[in-house]
Amino acid sequence: MQTAGMAAIPMILSESVEASPKNDIQSFSDGNVILFQGDSITDAGRDRKRQLPNDAHSFGNGYALMTASPILEQFPEKQLQIYNRGISGNKVYQLEDRWQEDCLDLRPSVLSILIGVNDYWHKRNGQYDGTVEVYERDFRALLDRTKETLPEVAVVICEPFSVDGGSAIGDGWQEEFTPYREAAKRISDDYGTRWVPYHKLFKEALKHAPASYWCPDGVHPSMAGAQLMAQAWLKVVMG
Amino acid sequence: MQTAGMAAIPMILSESVEASPKNDIQSFSDGNVILFQGDSITDAGRDRKRQLPNDAHSFGNGYALMTASPILEQFPEKQLQIYNRGISGNKVYQLEDRWQEDCLDLRPSVLSILIGVNDYWHKRNGQYDGTVEVYERDFRALLDRTKETLPEVAVVICEPFSVDGGSAIGDGWQEEFTPYREAAKRISDDYGTRWVPYHKLFKEALKHAPASYWCPDGVHPSMAGAQLMAQAWLKVVMG
């Protein structure tokens, strides 16, 4: 986007995120659909009674808004339709439950998925008994189902992350959560999707300010953290 | 911010907004305060029970969020405190009523004000009898009062705007509203403030997509319009 004063700074990005050599959006047809899917990080307080594309109230105030808005700003002629259908608390099997109406029916050209932290967190706190194997199996099944209906969809898998020093990140969290991140990466590699390395991004960000600045509880990003996530997504997907 | 794919596009900005030669934020001290003030366009659905700096729920989902977030992302070491205190429906005299607690007490280093569309709109629809002279007089009084308490504050005046083709922009609107925009510009010139030319910006944007894309009712920007406003603000203030 940017002006001289702002252009000097994205050091955190240059240290942690590789730009894609290919720009999906540039090659889009008019009216193509981009869909953000996930849990509370994606949901970000959106008004779920509205399910409108390109509508701020339907987007909440998180990384999905901050990712979609610059795309809409910069490609007005494309008439893109961008949706946020993240729902707080979701684990991967809950995406599966609502996948027909909240993904397949929308026929996205780009599908971005950020899921996994609740698959671990809810197990950790005794509300859920799925393992990392269940997470990986269900995530793969979700992509198989997606590819069957939408063989041309460009999938973006966003790495589930947790930020050291966040108030919810207790003893053993990072060690136990790492296999979920690794599973997501394996899936991304096997399905040939775009990959947004959020865990690495936040590790880099911690060199500049503590978790309280980027992601106070270690799970839900601040404004600064959400903006960083948006920039990383744009770099990976827009090239 | 930006990557190659996204860097090519800000033509709307380059055609309508001049970058400032001076970058206020770069010269800030740690912990400095930036304050966004205005009406519904600034408010943008923020949770007014929270009055927190750097907090997405306290910011809503409009241009203030989209302006503040990249600043927070890119200057983590500055520990800036950024507030949104816009309130829906406000006219300039209503800023005056709450100026002590919602501006002066916060001691901003940068104060951004976007006010004026309701001063006209509410008069147009018979809910208010202030004239453009009242708007200008009260706006100047507000700045005098601000400068008295905060002689060092850098003021940014955002041009009040209305977008041709918006559903609320009836016959005669633009002609009758123009004097308000002109008054704001005179004030900006007289007080030596930064000036964000939003009316010009949206006129330029209309070359690429209609009002329904940027600002459906002509007053309240869409996601795309809010992002454009944020980029313009950053260009003017960040240099």
Morphology call of chain A: globular
Shape-level CATH architecture of chain A: 3-Layer(aba) Sandwich
CATH topology of chain A: Rossmann fold
**Termini separation of chain A (Å)?**
14 Å
**Helix-strand topology string of chain A:** HHEHHHEHHEHHEHEHHH
Number of domains of chain A: 1
Biggest interface pair, counts: A-B, 51 and 52 residues
Helix content bin of chain A:
40-55%
Oligomer: homodimer
Q: By helix and strand content of chain A, what is the structural category? A: alpha/beta
Counted by DSSP, the helix tally of chain A is 13
Write a brief structural summary.
The structure is a homodimer of 239-residue chains. Helices cover 47% and strands 10% of the residues of chain A.
Outline the secondary-structure elements.
The structure is a homodimer of 239-residue chains.
Chain A: H1 4-7, H2 11-16, E1 33-38, H3 40-43, H4 56-59, H5 63-74, E2 81-84, H6 92-97, H7 99-102, E3 110-114, H8 117-124, H9 132-149, E4 154-158, H10 173-191, E5 194-196, H11 198-205, H12 211-214, H13 223-238
Parallel strand pairs in A: 1-2, 1-3, 3-4, 4-5
Description:
Two copies of one chain form a homodimer. Chain A has a five-stranded parallel β-sheet with strand order 2-1-3-4-5, with helices on both faces. Chain A is globular and about 50 Å long. Chain A has one domain: SGNH hydrolase (Rossmann fold), CATH 3.40.50. The first copy, chain A, is built from 13 helices and five strands. In chain A, helix 5 crosses helix 13, helix 8 runs antiparallel to helix 10 and helix 9 runs parallel beside helix 10. The longest helix of chain A has 19 residues. Chain A has 239 residues and is of the alpha/beta class. In chain A, strand 4, helix 10 and strand 5 form a beta-alpha-beta unit. The interface between A and B is large, with 51 and 52 residues.
